[in-house]
Amino acid sequence: MSVHSQAQRVTVPQLMSYKGTRKIAALTAYIAPIARLLDESVDMILVGDSTAMVGYDLPDTLSITTQTLAAHAAAVVRATQLACVIVDMPFGSYQQSPAQAFASAADMLAASGVAGVKLEGGQVMAETTRFLVDRGIPVLAHVGLMPQYVNTMGGFKAQGMSDAAAQRIREDAQAHAQAGAFGIVLEGISEPLARDITAGLDIPTIGIGASPACDGQILVTEDILGLSGDRIPKFARRFADAGQVIRDAAREYAQSVREETFPTLDHCFGVRRSN
Q1: What is the value of pTM for the model shown?
Q2: Mean of all residue pLDDT scores within the chain
Q3: Catalytic residue numbers?
Q4: Containing domain of residue 28, as a range?
């Protein structure tokens, strides 16, 4: 049964209202068929820049463009009716200045119809969050392990493990909350830190490799479906093995073609059958 009480799309204010009342369930989607299947179950769908790695087999998230991500986001919006859809701001599309960020975000919203954008960065990006929010663009902030900072962080490593690092991330989250972000993604940080940040903020935290205490959770859909290969991230759980289902279906199809049991005349057009 759908978690939605009415057949209308979840809004950003609704997501904010879930703080302290119930957990927010979120997943990623990049194409219409997957988004359509997720829609009735989740509160939020993120069209993440992880599209670069999951959809295009690139080594990181840095090379995907605004135009490419907007096209994926538009497909997800068209395929859904219930979930709140948020899109990532690609690397290089917002860091130069708040004005650049607004131009990029406005283009993405106009092209896709999403409800808001997500951007990565600590206190230095809080001014940009405020600039966007003041101009009508909802912002989901992202602190902790930030994939767009993979080169400065030296890889995909857990963050906030020292007192100093934890305090910096805590201040990053507070800065974005004060700047008007509607929520904050906490990725790859120590569990006690995520729990502490969640308790100290009035806006929802969305965890990924953070803490059960976060106000919501998000994962890459391909990770929970067994479509990401043999390696499962520490913070994820494989809820199904769709990969094996697809392999079995492809094997059966190929065998049927080679054995000439598919297609049959039942699958053809203009076939005249004798009485």
Answers
A1: 0.93
A2: 94
A3: 187
A4: 12-241
